[in-house]
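Section 3.1: Structural characterization of target chains.
Under the original work plan, the team committed to producing a structural model for every single-chain target entering the pipeline before any wet-lab resources were allocated. The record below documents one such target. The sequence was received from the expression subgroup and is listed exactly as submitted; it comprises 356 residues.
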Amino acid sequence: VTLNMADAGTRESDLEIAKKVEETRQRFKTEHVQDSTDKYDARDVERLQKDDLLAESYLTWRHYIVDDALKMIDESFQWRKEFQVNDLTESSIPKWMFETGAVYLHGYDKEGNKLFWFKVKLHVKDAKSVIDKKKYVAFWLERYAKREPGMPLTVVFDMSESGLSNIDMDFVKYIINCFKVYYPKFLSKMIMYEMPWIMNAAWKIVKTWLGPEAINMLKFVSKNEVQEFIGAEYLPTYMGGTDTFKYIYPPLPDDDFQSPICENGPIASEDENEGKDGESETKSETNSLADPTQKPKKVNFPADALKSDEYDKGDATDKPRAARKPLTTFKGPLLYIRYLDVCFVLTTHTDNVIER
């Protein structure tokens, strides 16, 4: 059961919210921006002063406590400048990352929230590509934020056919922080599909750092339970669904966003748009005639990891959906999980199984 903001404290009136939004803006300008003009991207600072939805989202996520919201904005804006989020395009991400199909947006859950898929079996820990992988996730989140401002996401960790070699706790921490700090009010829930028993110890560590409210957002499901949250029309056949969608890149999947592209436009650069205009019809026709068994290019991933998921790309349903806003608010410090902690718990758990 999700926690309603009204249950966490007194609901703020519109007038009180407006006052706190203005206080947040003024204090951020005087306490953070005035002496650190190169600390943030000027576009983010300007947007905070003009975008009521953005300013309020930070306040809501921190229970309308201005001091906490300011710390969150400071950390979020520094991250955005470090990763150059405002300038991320397809060309700034290695092409092989898109080709693997490890991360993409497609479909909706039963509450109308967009699904953000993570195919865990396609992820292998690699220190050399960690920054690019983080930018890859940021690219998808920023792309969605510009197309569906204010609309929450449901994250699906598809752990089928995955193992310990696919688990990267630092990367998991980063994904959680994306929703906890960098994109406030964007997370509806996290669905953990078919988590192998050997990963239980690692996820127990994550849960101890999340706190009770965040734990309520984690849904551990099997094939028999996943349809409690996602309808069959948006589940692939191996999950017991009827969705024939198959991720093939290029192009990026733009299946059925609920609202038009906002005034900032899509993230793709002008040069990319010019090149894609002439290719769009050809790519569309090529994808529709593609071999159903075609596999994405294998790069830096295990050979058996890119096995065909046995479903093809199909038409998205046209029925209207009403997206809901997330009702849960994260609290507490950011995650810090030591590698030795994970190893100790996993080793202890494995030893107990062997003794039995």
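Residues 204 and 345 are 9 Å apart (CA to CA).
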